[in-house]
TrEMBL record:
<keyword id="KW-0560">Oxidoreductase</keyword>
<feature type="domain" description="Ketoreductase">
    <location>
        <begin position="7"/>
        <end position="189"/>
    </location>
</feature>
<dbReference type="InterPro" id="IPR002347">
    <property type="entry name" value="SDR_fam"/>
</dbReference>
<dbReference type="InterPro" id="IPR057326">
    <property type="entry name" value="KR_dom"/>
</dbReference>
<comment type="similarity">
    <text>Belongs to the short-chain dehydrogenases/reductases (SDR) family.</text>
</comment>
<protein>
    <submittedName>
        <fullName>SDR family oxidoreductase</fullName>
    </submittedName>
</protein>
<dbReference type="InterPro" id="IPR036291">
    <property type="entry name" value="NAD(P)-bd_dom_sf"/>
</dbReference>
<dbReference type="Pfam" id="PF00106">
    <property type="entry name" value="adh_short"/>
</dbReference>
<dbReference type="InterPro" id="IPR020904">
    <property type="entry name" value="Sc_DH/Rdtase_CS"/>
</dbReference>
Length: 245
């Protein structure tokens, strides 16, 4: 039997792209999925799709920038399913630009969603997983979490930070509480992430390369693989990118 079956999996940013694909794939493999994001109408439609295919899922409106929303998401999941086996810190934004453009509000947004969002997720769920003496926290970094390019300084900084936080979590929790910590690092993937770009220069680059992106289902398969390994086996990092890039 797959080690995904019957696991309770919470996914932030599940209203589109990689989060949506992961929710659908994991539900298909027998997980009970809690989809969180801000756009409730999108969440309702995805939950409906999952249920129509025979899967189990519920949704909850939550903004990862609010630690209160993250605590409410945990409370909702516990009241519904009684435990949390896997938490996927997937929500993210990428309004990339050159530093000299001084898009300070967008720097703040990336730091808030991509770093603080991950930390607030961990803060909300870690006490529960420690109590359970088991759990798995999966966080979405990026190939930009390993390499910086012009226009990606702040986004890359947030994704380097995701790796640092996940590695710290692994070092602190794996031995004593058996909590697994995994980093998933996608390369270019066809999603709505590029819609958050406002810099004309970066929009032009994104338009040129976006067609080369892989399907979000390819990233979902990597997430499913990490979850499905036996509980004594930790997949600490997976990078998945287009063959051509
Ligand atoms: P999408 O834009 O399709 O999905 C992003 C999701 O994050 C949406 O569901 C959005 O939902 C949610 N989100 C954004 N802000 C918030 C917030 N404040 N609170 C809660 N949810 C929020 O992009 P992807 O699927 O591509 O992105 C998923 C992750 O993968 C991100 O962390 C991204 O950085 C990473 N990634 C993506 C790559 C790519 O090429 N696509 C490459 C490398 C990494 P809503 O607006 O409804 O709240």
């Amino acid at each position: 039997m797959e080690n995904i079956q019957n696991k309770v999996v919470v996914i932030t940013g599940a209203s589109s792209g990689i989060g949506e694909a992961a929710a659908k794939l994991l539900a298909q493999k027998g997980a009970k999925v809690v989809l969180a994001a801000r756009r409730e109408d999108r969440l309702f439609a995805i939950v409906n799709d999952i249920k129509q295919s025979g899967g189990e899922a519920v949704s909850f409106r939550a903004d990862v920038v609010s630690s209160e929303d993250m605590e409410n998401l945990v409370a909702f999941t516990l009241s519904h399913y009684g435990r949390i086996d896997v938490w996927v810190n997937n929500a993210g934004v990428m309004p990339s630009s050159r530093l000299s453009e001084l898009r300070v509000a967008e720097w703040d947004q990336m730091i808030d969603v991509n770093i603080k969002g991950v930390l607030y997720g961990i803060a909300a769920v870690l006490p529960i997983m420690r109590e359970q003496q088991a759990g798995h926290i999966i966080s979405l970094s990026s190939t930009s979490g390993y390499q910086v390019s012009p226009t990606s300084a702040v986004y890359a900084a947030t994704k380097f930070a995701v790796r640092a936080i996940s590695e710290g979590l692994r070092l602190e929790e794996s031995a004593s509480s058996r909590i697994r910590s995994t980093v998933i690092a996608p390369g270019l993937t066809k999603t709505e992430l590029f819609d958050t770009i406002t810099s004309p220069e970066v929009q032009m680059i994104a338009n040129q390369i976006s067609e080369m992106g892989i399907s979000p289902t390819s990233i979902a398969r990597a997430i499913a693989f990490a979850i499905n390994e036996p509980d004594d086996t930790l997949i600490s990092e997976i990078m998945v990118r287009p063959t051509a890039l």
